[in-house]
Specification:
The chain has 77 residues and is mainly β. The protein has one helix spanning 70-76; strands at residues 7-19, 22-35, 42-46, 54-59. The chain has one domain (7-76).
């Protein structure tokens, strides 16, 4: 497993407002994901398990500073 996650896990709760085709919502980063060596899945580490909303897995931004990893954020939670 690589040191830096390739994806982040977010909890998204609806804000109740519609913006075009999608509803706006509150996005909270709650975890990170690392790809398996065989490329057929991910290992996911989450700091919390939400009771509502939905989970969204998104690629980690390229421009992010290396010190700002979800793993370090989860360790401090």
């Amino acid at each position: 497993m690589e040191n830096k996650p390739t994806h982040y896990v977010y909890q998204v709760t609806d804000a109740g407002q519609e913006t075009g085709e999608e509803k706006s919502g509150y996005w909270t980063k709650i975890g990170a994901a690392w790809p398996h060596k065989d490329g057929k899945g991910y290992s996911i580490s989450m700091g919390v398990v939400p009771l509502d909303g939905r989970l969204v897995l998104r690629e980690r931004p390229e421009e992010e500073e290396p010190a700002q990893t979800a793993e370090s954020e989860l360790a401090s939670a």
